[in-house]
Amino acid sequence: MTVQTLALSEPLRDYFMQSALREPDILRQLREETMGHRVAKMSLAPEQGALLIFLLRMMGAKRYIEVGSFLGYSSIAAAIGMGPDGEVVACDICDEFTVQAESWWKRAGVDHQATMHLGRGIETLPRLIEEGAAGTFDCMLIDADKPNYPNYYEYALQLVRQGGLIILDNMFLNGRVAAPHEKHPRSVAILHEFNRQLRDDQRVEHCILPTGDGMTLLLKR
């Protein structure tokens, strides 16, 4: 018999949020203000933010990069996890979102730690590599346009140091990856196959967690 992950009922979810989740106040404020946003689902779930903070602290990370910043939840969590001497590099294509993210950085008191690169991640990442950033990051989070996940992953393998962490969000696409069909967007078929490729990729240690919309953790060998 296979032990299955417990689904969170509404009462259990309420208990978790009120009694079992350690969420910094600034992240709670950002999450609550984001709840009414038209694309609020683009933000990390609070338990994912807590996991990111935990992992970065555990590994003593000091340099973090992300593709897809939205309103700043993940980048602020990373700055908190690394402490005041940690460096956050954020990449996003949306000017509207990046302006708000930078505003939240200031409210969180981490704006001196963070740098925003506005533009397509598929262009920003190779430029950073050309500028000498290869192997200098402890952790990279990929949470952007899904069709480019395989490309972002290959850049991540160059940007992250040996023993560093690569995190990919939304690997379940609301469950659609389990049974992709022709009516689904192309991104579903891409992630369906990409999940298998990551499982078999011997360049990394692999773990996928059923948290949020599916979160993959990869340790670069």
Automatic annotation (TrEMBL):
<dbReference type="Pfam" id="PF01596">
    <property type="entry name" value="Methyltransf_3"/>
</dbReference>
<dbReference type="InterPro" id="IPR029063">
    <property type="entry name" value="SAM-dependent_MTases_sf"/>
</dbReference>
<keyword id="KW-0489">Methyltransferase</keyword>
<dbReference type="GO" id="GO:0008757">
    <property type="term" value="F:S-adenosylmethionine-dependent methyltransferase activity"/>
</dbReference>
<keyword id="KW-0808">Transferase</keyword>
<dbReference type="InterPro" id="IPR050362">
    <property type="entry name" value="Cation-dep_OMT"/>
</dbReference>
<dbReference type="InterPro" id="IPR002935">
    <property type="entry name" value="SAM_O-MeTrfase"/>
</dbReference>
<keyword id="KW-0949">S-adenosyl-L-methionine</keyword>
<dbReference type="GO" id="GO:0008171">
    <property type="term" value="F:O-methyltransferase activity"/>
</dbReference>
<dbReference type="GO" id="GO:0032259">
    <property type="term" value="P:methylation"/>
</dbReference>
<protein>
    <submittedName>
        <fullName>Class I SAM-dependent methyltransferase</fullName>
    </submittedName>
</protein>
